[in-house]
Amino acid sequence: MPQIRIVLVETSHPGNIGAAARAMKNMGLYELALVAPKCFPHHEATARAAGADDVLAQARCHASLAEAVADCQLVIGTSARQRTIQWPLLTPRQCAEKVTAEPPGHRVALVFGRERSGLTNEELDLCQFGLHIPCNPDYSSLNLAAAVQVVAYELFLAGKAMPSEGREARLATHAELESFYLHLAQALNDIGFLHSSKQAPSIMRRLRRLFGRARLEKREVDMLRGILSCAQRQAHKEAE
Amino acid sequence: MPQIRIVLVETSHPGNIGAAARAMKNMGLYELALVAPKCFPHHEATARAAGADDVLAQARCHASLAEAVADCQLVIGTSARQRTIQWPLLTPRQCAEKVTAEPPGHRVALVFGRERSGLTNEELDLCQFGLHIPCNPDYSSLNLAAAVQVVAYELFLAGKAMPSEGREARLATHAELESFYLHLAQALNDIGFLHSSKQAPSIMRRLRRLFGRARLEKREVDMLRGILSCAQRQAHKEAE
In which family does this protein belong, per the annotation (chains A, B) (predicted)? Predict the structure, then answer.
């Protein structure tokens, strides 16, 4: 199995952090990352964690989602809502298949948003895939820890059922991909593609989707960045 | 789909009842039965139910598990522990397949035990099948509402995926089966099979398992009871 990290973003209720830790340990997951939690550590978190207080004790806090997933090769974000741009949405079962197919050395982040509002579009942009838990369309807001429980349950089943298999080449980490996207935006701007366009964020979002689905290898990123650099050099030459 | 009832037995923490109601409604389940809950109604139950307070408001309280499942054709009880006698244990996915294969008119009860100690052996005797959620062997105690969430999630998926199909003949209700088991025990006693045996409870338990797996039809129960009556008449004749 790859190394699986559960990331909770700006959780309001410490009880939910504890209950999520319990749900994780029940399914054999131990790595918890918290992005700007409102109250942590907190006695309610400890109480609801029950015997999973070791998971809480090892939890790492981060200032931003980007920081929490910087070293991950695969980042999957939960999403309750349908969005305008069609996101590649996985079910928990498909997500578990994808995760267990990762090579053992890889780090995978499963990201869960705020209790009320979930993840922002900007945070979902940091994810290669979206994850949606099928549920009653008339009442679709799962409790945070309940959502973690369902996803962790599918991961546990998949981990028992499937041998892991993956690509030979090392996939790019999240930080490498973010540098690439930054480079891409600069290059597109340099060559005048994004220049006067209000649509820049939307275009970058579509490109992220595209590359996100492709699961770029490190050497592919290097190659693409080489291409971008060439394009930039050409643009700067003309401007001179 | 058959009519699905979630039954919670002697729940200690009202918050868990509320969280279970929310988990149910998220997955399109609305029928909740409570057997001797410690505190209900309770403000913590209402708070944790969030938008599922309608499920709480409709919940029915019962004095015993037998009463709560009397009108059900299929009763499935969750079990965390391995027991001496091998119970026919289902995974949540197998359970969902079995439940969705029931005819539309049938009533199905899914029974969840106490937070600390689960269901007693006597309560499991009232169930035709056991249900075990696969989990980390080193930390296997799921929160009650988390367990309801996993089972309800599998039911929701199965309900969307599978057309229901069932037998033509009406299956026996729980109450009809209990009358049969009582008759059976009396008959076995009458014919001297259970007479001087300390093993009577264990023997009855094995017989329950056997008939439970068979899913008796009403007309089969009538037939079996006809046989028992004959055996009893013979026994009484010899005794005279």
Answer: Belongs to the class IV-like SAM-binding methyltransferase superfamily. RNA methyltransferase TrmH family.
